[in-house]
Amino acid sequence: MRTGVLIYKDVLSSLSPEAKKILGLILHKGGMTKSQLAKVAGLKLTTLNRMMLPLEKADLILPTETGESTGGRKPVIYDVNPRRYYVIGIDISRLYSQVVLTNLKMELIEKDRFDMDRNSSPQATLNRILDWIGRVMEKRGHGYVIGVGIGTVGPLDRQSGIILNPENFEAQGWENIPLKAIVEERTGLPVIIDNGANGAVLAETRYGSGKGMKSVIYLNCGVGIRTGVISSGTLVRTINDADDTFAHMVIDVNGKPCHCGNQGCVERYSSIYAIMEALAEEMPQGKDRRNHKADRPVSYLELCREAEENDTIARQVLQNAAVRMGTGLANFIQLLNPGLVVLSGPLILHSQLFYEVCVEAAKRRRPWDKGGHLVFSRGGAFEENAISIGAAALVVEHYLEPETLG
């Protein structure tokens, strides 16, 4: 290995299924003693020692600390090595893009985030991301990169690694882009591509706020509403790996026409585009907005801020959108019976009001949760980094639990 440079190493695919099982247990449950591992895995200690040997030889796991003694020698706790193997995660979204370097525990090491605008063509966006990856691999040594994950908007041809015909990118040219092939050619690393919300829900379930839960919903509220669902431990997939399952749930059969061909879809009321449209509809009615001239366009960030500051129109627009979202969410929850619902994305992370009203609207329609076991989370464990870290998680889980990914 060249000093001071990260290079690719295929370490996970060569492991036996038994070794992968042990590594997965430590990754998902945290550091454990050998006795604890043997109990969780249902193995004899001698069998466990044999399974752990290749993990120790490859520096995938290592003794990290000494546990509490119960009378004899203090037991050693084994955990995943946080400074030997790394993963790159890429989030390509309509409002921003982000690239991160994580370790196998999905701990964030470095990141670059930038806004997407009319100049963010596929070539410009990928050049910036790939230049950053090159710089990080050059400057950060003493370890290996095992692959790159890409989480993006759908629809996708996931097997071929192509983003097909996504809507609402401000820049032109985002049709039929072979993301997987481009990134593999430039980096020399294997690439996994998926709907970004799928990566986020996987990260939250395996490494974040949904640890130990079998069913988790992740909703990313931005220009569109993106959906990721883990049900009974398995990722739920849609046609063309589209990310708008929840977005096009009909909540008003006589409602606003939607580009999907239906009427009254959640996205027609509760996405950033829909909210800004609703604000524009309010303005010609002679209603004053407190801090702005009526003829000056505002951004969704300004709208969120004004609503938090009790601007009457801004607050009403956001509340109406949030109630619609919460109504649809109640139906979605009743269908999927999750233990955790993570609401994230630009709209949620910039508006406490939208989040609170949405959750309250969902809870008012709660025959599905009389016991109070359902948990809501604003942003989850990974907040604005969920999709990029989720993309990195896709790489690791691809090797450890391919049956989960479908």
From TrEMBL:
GO BP of this protein: D-xylose metabolic process
Keyword terms of this UniProt record: Carbohydrate metabolism, Xylose metabolism
Origin: domain of life: Bacteria
InterPro entries: ATPase_NBD (IPR043129), ROK (IPR000600), WH-like_DNA-bd_sf (IPR036388), WH_DNA-bd_sf (IPR036390)
SUPFAM superfamilies, A to Z: Actin-like ATPase domain (SSF53067), Winged helix' DNA-binding domain (SSF46785)
Family to which the UniProt record says this protein belongs: Belongs to the ROK (NagC/XylR) family.
Function: Transcriptional repressor of xylose-utilizing enzymes.
PANTHER family: ROK (REPRESSOR, ORF, KINASE) FAMILY (PTHR18964), TRANSCRIPTIONAL REGULATOR, XYLR-RELATED (PTHR18964:SF110)
Protein name: ROK family protein
Species the sequence originates in: Desulfitobacterium hafniense (strain DSM 10664 / DCB-2)
